[in-house]
Structure formats: C-alpha cells, structure tokens
Amino acid sequence: MASMSLEGRTCLVTGATSGIGLAVACALASRGARVIGVGRDALRSEKARAEVARAAAGGPVPEWEITDLGLMREVEGLAARILAREGSLDVLVNCAGVFTARRRLSPEGLETQFAVNHLAPFLLTTSLLPLLEAAPEARVITVSSASHFYGRIHWRDPSLSAFYLGLWAYEQSKLANVLFSYELVRRLGPGTKVRVAVADPGLANTAMGKKQGLSPSSLFWSLRRRAGSPPSVPAEAIAFLAEAPRNLVGTGLYWKGKAAMASSRLSYREADAARLWAMSEAMVEAALGRLPKKPPS
Ligand SMILES: NC(=O)c1ccc[n+]([C@@H]2O[C@H](COP(=O)([O-])OP(=O)(O)OC[C@H]3O[C@@H](n4cnc5c(N)ncnc54)[C@H](OP(=O)(O)O)[C@@H]3O)[C@@H](O)[C@H]2O)c1
C-alpha cells in the first residue's frame, strides 16, 4: 500500500499559530505540502507563517487566513474564500481548540468551547466538502481528546447556561468531534474517496490551558502539561494520518498516535450523532441570524 505523497498537496490547518496545530503545519510543510494555515491573530499568524516557511525549506510557500473560529460568520467567510479560489482540498486538519474555565458567550450567542471546538469544524468541513470530494483522496482529520471519554452532550442546554463547568464544556465539545466525524463517514457513504479520522493527541505540552489568564485550572495546567509530549509528537501522528494509504486510514476512525482504537461508548450512538448533526445545523443557522437562537430539544 503506497502512502499518499503530500508533495504539492493542499492542506488547510486550523489552530496553526501554536501548539499541536503549528507543529502539524510544520510537519506537513516539511513533507512538501502547500499549507494554508488558519489563525485568529494577525501577529501570531505572521510569526507562525515564518516558522512554517522555514519548515517548508524551499517547498510551497505557506499561505494564511485570519479567522475567529468562535464566530460562525467568520467560519462561513473562510469557507467562502477557500471555495472561491481552490479547485480541490487534499487535507483538512481541524486542530484549533480552546478551554475556558469561565463561561463565555460569543456575540452570536454561542458558548465559546462548543463554538470553536465543535461548531467551527462542523461548519468548515461541511462547507468544504465539494473541494474535498474533488481531491483524489482527501483526508479530514479532527483533533479530539481522551477527555471525550468523560463527556456527554447536554441536549437541552449545550451552551451550559444553567450550570457551567469548563471541563464539562470541553468534554462535551470533544465528544461532539467524535460523533460528528462518525456521522460524516455515514453521510459520505461507502463510495467516497474522502477518509475521515479523529486524532487523539494524548497529553501534549502546549499553552492551551493557560490562555484564559490566572485561575486554579490554568495553574493546574501549568503543572500537568510538563508531563506531556512535545507538540511535534502528536503532529507527526497527524501527518502520518494525512499521508497514510487510504486503505489503512479506512481501517480505523479514532487514532491515538499511529494506532486505531475504540472511542467512548456514547460516541457510537448513531441516533445521537444524527441528532447532534441536526442540532449543530440549527445552532449555526441561528448564530448566522437565519433561525431563532434556540437549539432544538
Ligand atoms: N495539549 C493537549 O494535551 C491536548 C490533549 C488533547 C487534545 N488536545 C487538542 O489539541 C488541539 C490543539 O490544542 P493545543 O494543545 O495545541 O493548544 P494551543 O497551543 O492553545 O492551540 C490551539 C490553537 O487553536 C487556536 N484557537 C483558539 N481559539 C480560536 C479561535 N476562536 N479562532 C481561531 N483559532 C483559535 C489557537 O490560536 P492562538 O494561537 O491565537 O491562541 C491555537 O492556534 C485542540 O483541539 C485540543 O482540544 C490537546
């Protein structure tokens, strides 16, 4: 089984300004891919772009998109720009993620972790499907977490407005990544050339849990992350999924490192996955002002 050479392939990576996403962008660029990085901040994006360009070492020059993935209108705008200028997309890595100890609502009325960690990959991936289907053998890799094992979907209150715990919101969003990916496979059907994978990076030493300012959970993260691997370790595993032969990627859906494994019991509930898809569509539509801002129960 031959690997898919990434040379000249177009790879869109969200969360490419730091941690695992930046390392993924570098790993893909070092394999000759044409990387389109996505970041929310112009200065951090410029720095990251320079780092990815160094990794490309004379290969395709990385391009960058500035997008706040917490805002569905910006995700929609990103997808529209990519659709307007690309003929196909070989690899989409949904890596951006956030943890917020305190509940935050976007101007569109969405809880931040659900918006950035789940709804953004949902909207971006489904919007870019025509480009992915136009590629010879596309990959959609969404970065979840072992935290999904502890998560459940709060169907009546996904924004956790009645009672918020940062960890509950994070675990819910990471379970949503898995349910979404499995439902995507079902909707693409058996004849598709698009391969879908969920990547569990394990504990990685990144700044994710510290970005919310000083709090007990950020102090806890500062200590805990020291036991984590450098971001290059999960990045290499994600690059492996991007270039592994189609048949091999098709043998598993949830990947820890380079090995497929079982995900949580709840993640296999097909009815829940279909329900989450419908709920996500409704929440995105409401955020974009096309529906009343109330998720279906
Ligand atoms: N680190 C771990 O141990 C671990 C374990 C399991 C799963 N994960 C998952 O791995 C992924 C990457 O996390 P990480 O540890 O590498 O954290 P990180 O270093 O904080 O990277 C997160 C990335 O997401 C971006 N991002 C956050 N909010 C955004 C928004 N509103 N719009 C656009 N981009 C946004 C960040 O941008 P800025 O650079 O501007 O902040 C950054 O590029 C996440 O999905 C996380 O859930 C991490």
Describe this structure as you would to a colleague:
This protein is of the alpha/beta class and 297 residues long. It has helices spanning 19-30, 42-56, 72-85, 112-134, 166-188, 216-224, 232-243, 246-249, 270-287; strands at residues 10-14, 34-39, 63-66, 91-94, 139-143, 195-200, 254-256, 259-260. The mean pLDDT is 94. It starts with 9 loop residues before the first strand and ends in a 10-residue tail after the last helix. The chain has an 8-stranded mixed beta sheet, with helices on both faces. The radius of gyration is 18 Å and the shape is globular. The protein is built from 9 helices and 8 strands. NADP nicotinamide-adenine-dinucleotide phosphate binds next to helix 1.
Q: How would you summarize what this structure contains?
A:
The protein has nine helices and eight strands. The protein is an alpha/beta fold.
